Amino acid sequence: MGDGFTLVELLVVLAIISILMALLLPSLKRAKWAAKQVVCINNLHQLHIGLLLYVNDWDGYFPVANPNDGGVPDYDYWGWTRQLARYTNVKTNSISAPFVPITSVFWCPVPASGVLCGTAERWQYAMNEDLRQNGHNPVSDWYYGSRAVNLVNINQVRDPAAVFAFTENGYYPAVLNQYFLENGLYGDSVSISTAGPAHGGKGLPFIYVDGHAIFWNKVPSYATYTTDSKLPWTHSSFWGREVNGYGAQWATYDP
Predict the structure, then answer these.
(1) Which of 232, 228, 171, 177 is closest to 207 using CA atoms?
(2) Is 204 helix (H, G, I), strand (E, B) or coil?
(3) Which of 235, 238, 229, 234 is nearest to 207 (CA)?
(4) Which of 64, 254, 39, 73 minimizes the C-alpha distance to 174?
């Protein structure tokens, strides 16, 4: 016999390599997913730093949806992104170009299957609507009361560790109430086949006013996501009940 491999030996080696690949690839995939989640949380931390810088410059006030009307409708969900862009080293920060680049910290790095917004299939982060404004009519002012009146000051937030600042809401860059978390948790309810949930349905990231961040990986059933008392967003304290906003009005439970 020669010094080369026999056919049987070659097949054995190939079989071993295949087994090793089958064992390693899922681990590598999970590691890659976990790394993107770390980047996602880091993005939220950068947004939070930008928020604190903004608050420091504006006497403690949070950004509003639409700072000066400037031809943009009152329901301008993206207003806060324009105001925080220059605090996070993002170029776009004007009424004429309201959308921040998809490669910036305003967008999650984890692709969602078949999402509606963005060609790269990524969701944009969203701000707690109750912090953007304090309308005199909490039930309707998310739509009509977003001019620079009735501002919310950070000193109004009694428990910064309980009130969230940013999360990932899918199509809308503002979270109006617990029902608007549906897009991030499950995908778009109108067209579920074309709008996937954030992070592949594995959960949602949250960063709070005090700066601590979590990844909520206990995705509830669709039937209980607005009624389960174990979920933070079902409590008015999660939205900031003290600012008397829209989200807190819709929360199922009081703190």
Answers:
(1) 232
(2) strand
(3) 238
(4) 64
